[in-house]
Amino acid sequence: MTWLRRPARRLAVALAAGLLLVSGCGSISAGTPGGAAQPAAEASAAASCAASPGTWTATEPASPGSRNNDLTGVVALAADNVWAVGTSADLNGGQTLIEHWNGATWSVITSPNPGESGNFLSAVSAVSPSDVWAVGEAQSGGESKTLIARWNATAWQQVPSPSPGPDSYLTGVRAVSARDAWAVGYYNRGPSSASRSLILHWNGTRWAQVPSPAPRATNKLDAVTAVSATSAWAVGSSGGQQLGSPFILHWNGTAWTQEEAPVQGTGGELRSVAATSTANVWAAGDESDSAGQQGLILHWNGTDWTRTPNPGPGGRGLVETLTSTAATSPANAWAVGYTYNGAAYQSLILRWNGTVWTQAASPNPGAGGNLSDIAASSPTSTWAVGQFGAVGGDHAFALRYCPPAADKSASTDLYTSRVFARGRQVSAAWLFKGPGYPRAMDVKALGKNGDQIDRLFTEPAELLVLQHCHQIKPSVVGMMDSYAHDARRPRSYMIIDGADTGRILRSLGLLPVTPAHPPLQN
User: Fold this and answer.
1) For the chain, what is the mean pLDDT?
2) Sign of the torsion angle spanned by Cα atoms 149, 150, 156, 161
3) Kindly report the CA angle at 482 between 440 and 470, in degrees rounded to 5?
């Protein structure tokens, strides 16, 4: 039985499959390449992070290329399921690089390389552990064509995609559902022609080009995000042949239209965009003025785009660029990038706490690093990737955020924005009870006097979820309902018991249609 209630009305929610797996309901490994991490290795990785609470720590992704290795995109589905994409290069040219983190180590996963002279991946996005997209370009015969690859729980395979010009590039991707995904970039009609913005859409069957506004001579898109089928954002730059300015587009369910960006400098570019709702969208990049190049951070509140003070060190004599941003709630967002002083790069990390942006300490191994992308699936599950300089060539770079002890004792098992309710993306806090409690759940199973429910309702999430592998007794439902109808703060909540957990996972192909044994019961 599934309960999904809000005072005075009912909600319709589509769950991200990856979240359901966290509960441990049944023996599920679909979508995870190479199997789970060995317990000893996973414990070692957890201990390493625990030893440095509140800091970013470096992990060791593979660097198979003899000349260059660069991770440019990352997506985190769970603590033991993280994907990173990019490029590795040797004397024969660049090849796509896809790596997977299983909770303890990174491993290289075979990926498509259709181009004869080079293949590059720029971005990655996931719907579920068995549905992940990566985009980039493939080079052959002096031309570049769009490259799209998809993970189907078994292998990465190329998916046909339009290339409207002899040089077509994809730089960003955002998967909303199995039948709704966006990819953006730019293309040229010839060697001397100006760049034109490129937008592709996946409808569940094929990728097709969608008309994109082109207000100036040169227009290109770097990133895309979406909160629902009727609200998406894309950002980049628009301008003359040499100098561009920040460029913002919005999808309203019917067409893409340009939004005005609050610009002050003589030139600039937005390189990333992230959203948790239609009223909380961040865009980051850089702009130039007489003092040099500084990072640029913009925020959308549902009505207007406004500039936000940037604490980064950029200015005269120091180039600063923000390459990516990620957010999990109105009170938690990140931006990453790099600074360059004319001789060396240094990675840069900024954090938003709901009030101000502050700079966080960032590791810089080797000769200095730069960060290309950041992914945050919850306040305590955040990754950033890029590259750092080393003797003989650049190496792949991956950082993991180790939350402080206060974050680890949070009220819930999972806090995420990867949930859709009533056609829009919402934040959700999850409380799980898995096979470790193999019987019907009553209030006594949720702490003294049900205090785990009490703590769940202190979360700022828009949707509160209780999930169990077995039956959930009416006493628990009654307590959840009582909290939800508190006149001081009415809330939306959902309860999922074992039978429905099984049905959801089987409908997504993550459990056999007829389980060999019944781990999910009423």
Assistant:
1) 83
2) negative
3) 15
Tokens of 87: 């490029």
Domain ranges of the chain: 2-22+413-507, 211-362
Q: At the fourth CATH level, which superfamily is domain 211-362?
A: YVTN repeat-like/Quinoprotein amine dehydrogenase (2.130.10.10)
Backbone angles phi, psi at 379, to 5 degrees: -60, -20
| Section 230-246 average pLDDT | 86
Q: Which residue, chain included where needed, has tokens 């589509």?
A: 14
The DSSP line for 159-201 is ------SSEEEEEEEEEEETTEEEEEEEEESSTTSPPEEEEEE
| Distance, CA of 68 to CA of 142 (rounded, Å) | 21
User: Hey, what amino acid is at 341?
Assistant: N
pLDDT tens digits for range 366-384: 778 899 999 987 666 799 9
What one-character-per-residue DSSP string does 395-422 give? Answer: EEEEEEEE--HHHHT-SSSEEEEEEEET
| pTM, full prediction | 0.78
pLDDT in tens, 46-67: 656 767 788 999 998 999 999 8
Residue 459's φ and ψ, nearest 5 degrees, are -70, 145
